[in-house]
Amino acid sequence: LPAKFDWRDKGIVTKVRNQGVCGGCWAFSVVGIIESVHAIKRNVLEELSVQQVIDCSYINSGCRGGSPVGALGWINQTRVKLVRDSEYHFQAETGLCRYFSRADFGVSIKGYAAYDLSDQEDKMKKLLLEWGPLAVVVDAASWQDYLGGIIQYHCSSGEPNHAVLITGYDTTGSIPFWIVKNSWGPAWGIDGYVRIKIGSNVCGIADEVSAAFL
Amino acid sequence: RSSQQEEKEEAAKWESILRIRRLNSLSNGDNTTAFYGMNQFSHLFPEEFRAIYLQSKSSKVPKFTPEVRVEEIDKP
Fold first, then answer.
1. What is the mean pLDDT of residues A76-86?
2. A145-171 pLDDT, tens per residue?
3. A107 strand-pairing partners
4. Inter-chain residue contact A144 with B49, CB threshold 8 Å
5. Complex ipTM, two decimals?
6. In whole angstroms, what separates CA A93 from the centre of its chain?
7. Exposure pattern of A151-177 as b/e (b: 16+ CB <10 Å)?
8. CA B29 to CA B31: how far, in whole Å?
9. Which chain A residue shows the shortest CA-CA distance from B57?
10. I need a surface site. Which of A37, A69, A96, A155 has the fewest CB within 10 A?
11. Chain A 160-189, CB below 8 Å of chain B: which residues?
């Protein structure tokens, strides 16, 4: 494995978005990984609709919360095609599900994986390279005040409450870290990203790891 | 905004300052570790922040075993 890897360098990660006051992080993380696998496979990077997942994934609760694994299960089972963000804009509130004709453009998935890798972060690096960016659920209570640097302490793994995606890792320095894309806008953290120490399941980053396959 | 709302946000900011001081003091001057400060969420109490932004639910997922093949997990 390379000592340092970031899918952003391959041009397959969309820009950091802002969920506003909508508790839809679960949808941002799932749409983020689908955008990336779509870009890896079809060589086209496009922003897909988060609002479609928020409005239509009936097993979740829209802007009042949801689960990335639940959303992936719904996308996989229904074979729903995610449309472009430009066709179904983010509204920061739950709305009525809009349907699109089968002829319209859309990205559907053929499968997904979801695992607990809590004592296998080395394996996670390999999966990141093989599968593309990974959606993870973390305990982000201490992220309220984060400005930069590598989170190593005061981040428990007890209460998962926020979904994000891992786009890369860096093991070249004294503290190896994951490169994690958030959905709180580019003004938060390091241009919208946060760094998490690799190796001790900091923030519970390896407790629930999922990926989508096209 | 009402003055009541402004007072509440001011109180939340003071609480944020105290929390940030505590978080930064625990880094022991280590320059690689995370640093904390005022940002777009500093006007919120932790419980408000949690209620708005931390709304992901976790799911029970199996332990990863290298033997599992990707094709096998394409089942509902």
1. 96
2. 999 999 998 888 778 999 999 999 999
3. A82
4. yes
5. 0.91
6. 19
7. bbebbebeebbbbbbbbbbbbeeebbb
8. 6
9. A67
10. A96
11. 160-163, 173-175, 184-185, 187-188
